[in-house]
Write a structure and sequence with these properties.
This protein is mainly alpha-helical. The chain has 17 helices and two strands. It has a two-stranded parallel sheet with strand order 1-2. Helix 10 runs antiparallel to helix 12 and helix 12 packs across helix 17. The longest helix has 44 residues. The radius of gyration is 25 Å and the shape is globular.
């Protein structure tokens, strides 16, 4: 840990102690509150460290180099200038239909509040009728379940019937899960108030704020900043736009040259496939890091600033960890908090820690797979196997060894990121273009990968293995 990181950590602890009126001796006794005024780790590191700021500048330079590469290549080869807009426009195609689906999801989420008022008001009249009150309580739980199922089922049915452009589909499917989790969080928080007839329900203003606040844990009040820094908002939205173009350049320069013709020929050499997979490792990791920065840092900080949301700890320093359990908790604290409060904690007293953890991974893996399947238009559970299979296996393997060999395990973690993202950036495009280029077959199915049968992967003619340790004079 560097001196700057230690200083930031000490400052955070001091702020927590001051806000809670604690002394250092009390620090270990009282748990930290869920929400408090604090910045995102990267905000502190970039502002406080010239070294981290230099790494940020390196990524900006890579973006500029990719832009120049795209412009010059297309100018020389095709006589036109391409700045990546083609891939962006195609990725966000049919945005009007995507907006309609999102508005429907929002309407379903908004319907929860009048339903809550109706449920709480009716309970007051049924207090003297225990049997009717019990039936009404069951109907209330069913009502929440119906809203959650509806906000997921309708977009899923619509996207399954007719495919939407990739980026638009990712946005719509992520939003449907976000609204479903928001409904669940608000329902659980308000249920005790409905049973206590003297407790006040949240206002509609509170609920609307929660729907758009960058958190999935409901509170009537959150730590708020005093003013909105519009320059800060604009800067982060510009970063989001830049990262969208960043990924379009990676797609055009590293994916299309290797995989766009995949399936046009009945056979493809194994060496070509292997070379393409390794070529996707570096852009895959860059895309992974850019996606993290875009969503969990730039996008969340922009919305937090606009809504004067004071707690910006949307993630923790996951990149330094040596334990996969720590990585899963630190990578996305927003979703982790919801999974902890609504799946792990309710299940653990009855099912135990192991089954509760398995349930958390199962829900998360299925949600990710639904997003990818609806976005690409086929079921290919590569991410599910990496995340819900190998990722789950790494939890016990790094639980104790991560403390004893932190440097080695951190190296292993990053190695898994490189390999995993390289496979994702290879296998999904292979399947995508195989379905696009291979001739139709009666055996074509949403659930069976077409790239397994078309094209046929063969070794190079007259290929033979030569032992590299045999020295020929």
């Amino acid at each position: 840990m560097t001196e700057i990181e230690e200083h930031i950590l000490r400052r955070r602890k001091q702020e927590v102690l001051l806000q809670n009126g604690l002394t250092k001796r009390d620090e270990e006794k009282k748990p930290l509150p869920e929400f408090m005024h604090r910045d995102s780790p990267l905000t502190e590191l970039i502002e406080g460290s010239l070294h981290i700021r230099a790494i940020y500048h390196i990524f900006v330079v890579i973006l500029l180099v990719l832009l120049c590469d795209t412009v010059i290549y297309d100018f020389v080869e095709r006589g036109k200038i391409n700045i990546g807009t083609t891939s962006v426009i195609h990725g966000f195609g049919d945005i009007r239909r995507g907006a309609k689906i999102w508005l429907l999801e929002l309407a379903i989420a908004l319907a929860f509040y009048p339903g809550l008022r109706l449920y709480a008001g009716t309970r007051k009249f049924l207090v003297k009728f225990p049997a009717a009150l019990k039936i009404w309580s069951i109907m209330g739980m069913l009502g929440v379940a119906v809203l959650e199922v509806t906000v997921i089922a309708i977009p899923t049915w619509d996207l399954g019937k007719k495919k939407l452009a990739l980026a638009s589909s990712v946005a719509v499917t992520c939003e449907m899960f976000r609204f479903a989790m928001k409904i669940q969080a608000a329902a659980v928080a308000c249920a005790p108030r409905c049973r206590d007839h003297l407790a006040k329900l949240p206002t509609f203003k509170h609920y609307i704020y929660f729907l758009f606040a960058p958190t999935l844990v409901y509170r009537d009040e959150y730590p708020r900043t005093k003013k909105i820094r519009w320059g800060f908002v604009l800067f982060h939205f510009l970063e989001v736009a830049a990262i969208i173009f960043y990924n379009s350049f990676l797609w055009e320069r590293f994916i299309l040259p290797y995989w766009s013709d995949y399936g046009k020929e009945p056979k493809v050499e194994a060496g070509t496939v292997v070379r393409g997979m390794f070529a996707c490792v570096l852009p895959g990791v860059i895309s992974f890091l850019c996606g993290f920065y875009c969503l969990l840092h730039a996008w969340h900080n922009a919305f937090a600033e606009m809504l004067t949301f004071g707690d910006r700890l949307f993630y923790e320093e996951w990149w330094t960890t040596s334990q996969f359990s720590r990585y899963y908790r630190a990578w996305n604290r927003v979703v982790h908090s919801w999974l902890r409060d609504h799946i792990y904690r309710p299940l653990s007293p009855r099912a135990g820690r192991a089954l509760s953890t398995l349930a958390v991974f199962a829900v998360s893996a299925v949600a990710h797979e639904v997003i990818l399947s609806l976005s690409f238009g086929f079921f290919y559970p590569v991410l599910m196997m990496e995340f819900g299979g190998l990722g789950l296996l790494m939890l016990p393997l790094t639980a104790s060894t991560g403390r004893r060999f932190p440097s080695f395990l951190n190296l292993l973690m990053w190695l898994s990121f490189f390999i995993g993202n390289g496979l994702l950036w290879s296998l999904y495009p292979m399947e995508f273009f195989a379905r696009k280029n291979c001739p139709p077959s009666p055996n074509d199915s949403f659930f069976i990968p077409k790239s397994w049968s078309c094209p046929e992967i063969v070794l190079k003619p007259n290929w033979s293995f030569q032992n590299p340790f045999n020295i020929i004079y």
